[in-house]
Amino acid sequence: MKLKSSFYFYLLGIPLFLFLFVIIFLTSYLIAHGIPVLSLRFLFSYPEKQMTAGGIFPVIFGSFYLTILAFIFSLIPSLFSGIYFAYYAQDNFLTFALKTLIKSLSGMPAIVFGLFGLALFVRIFKLGLSLLASSLTLSLLTIPYLITTTEEALLSVPHTFYEAAIALGIPKWTVIRKIILPEAKPLLLSGVFLAFARLIGEVAPILFTGVAFYLKTISFSPLEKFMALPYHIYILATQHEKILKVRPIAFASSLVLLFFALTFGVGAYILRMKIKKYY
User: Fold this and answer.
1) Between the N and C ends of the chain, which has fewer C-beta atoms within 10 Å?
2) SS3 (DSSP) at 53
3) Rounded alpha-carbon distances, angstroms, from residue 234 to 208, 212, 250, 253, 275
4) 109 burial type by CB count under 10 A (0-12 exposed, 13-18 middle, 19+ buried)
5) Which runs of E-coded beta strand occur in the chain?
6) Exposure string for 3-27, b = 16+ CB within 10 A, e = fewer
7) What φ, ψ does residue 108 adopt, rounded to 5°?
8) Residue 195 within any structural domain of the chain
9) What positions does the domain ABC transmembrane type-1 occupy (predicted)?
10) What residue numbers bound the domain in which 221 lies?
């Protein structure tokens, strides 16, 4: 019996160790080739000579500007929809159909959202190739995930809190706003961190809606084009005319993007651990 258990333990552990080996190898490779280029000047200076020299400050700025705008556009619809499904929606076919549709949208390829954003925001709404069109497109990608996260966060709060407050005669919306939402805040923030980690690394939805590879300056106008880390890395690694010369910059940019994504991911993990200790 012990021999059989050991066999299954090692059999199931092999894929895990292979996965960890690949992750460690890729991360080490990025660090080894990206660290020599990384410096404060690289992070806070502007690109030069068609991105064969200089830094990536406009790229970082554009990525965060895009991510923040997309999150702002997706926050209110996601929060209100999550509250509706958790505490107001009836258990009927319509609710089932809506939840199924939301889950289907969560698994839809990102490039489909990019084409939809091109048709809707760039052409129909005539926003042009701009940061605004890209952020609205990314918000559509994020809303299904945030709706599900909001609903799960609200339902994770012990139902006795809700029942006790209602029994005291407190209005339903006041219970949700004053009791349920504050209790669910750590899990909500965890979902927000994971959404940021996904948003900052997406490239497909912005390919057709306003991202640019090389801009000499940054613009605060949401109606202008912008630069973004994932697209910047893609062009450096595959499309640049001096691909060997810019490869170290591509490695360093990838390392920066990996750092941002891991920071948001670790933040989400820490919040989840706090929730487990609390309950």
Assistant:
1) N
2) strand
3) 14, 12, 8, 10, 37
4) exposed
5) 47-48, 53-54
6) eeeeeeeeeeeeeeeeeeeeeeeee
7) -75, 140
8) yes
9) 60-268
10) 62-278
Domain presence at residue 47 = no
In-domain check, residue 50 = no
- If one counts the domains in the chain, the total is 1
pTM, two decimal places: 0.87
pLDDT per residue rounded down to tens, the chain (279 residues): 555 666 666 777 788 788 888 888 888 888 888 888 888 888 988 888 777 788 899 999 999 999 999 999 999 999 999 999 999 988 889 989 999 999 888 888 899 999 999 999 999 999 999 999 999 999 999 999 999 999 998 998 888 888 888 888 888 899 999 989 988 888 888 888 888 888 888 888 898 998 988 887 888 999 999 999 999 998 888 888 888 888 889 899 999 998 998 888 888 778 777 665 555
Residue type (1 letter), 61: F
Structure tokens at 3: 């021999």
Q: Considering the domain boundaries, does residue 23 fall inside one?
A: no
Q: Residue 114's domain is classified under what CATH number? A: 1.10.3720.10
SS3 letters for 163-180? HHHHHCCCCHHHHHHHHH
Residues 108 and 140: their CA atoms lie apart, in Å, by 11
Angle between helices 243-278 and 57-83 in degrees, nearest 10: 30
Helix boundaries (H) for 35-56 = 40-44
In b/e form, how buried is each residue of 110-121, taking b as 16+ CB within 10 angstroms? beebbbbbbebb
CA distance 58 to 112: 27
| Angle (CA) 119 106 259, round 5° | 95
What is the C-alpha to C-alpha distance for residues 29 and 179, in angstroms, rounded to an integer? Answer: 48
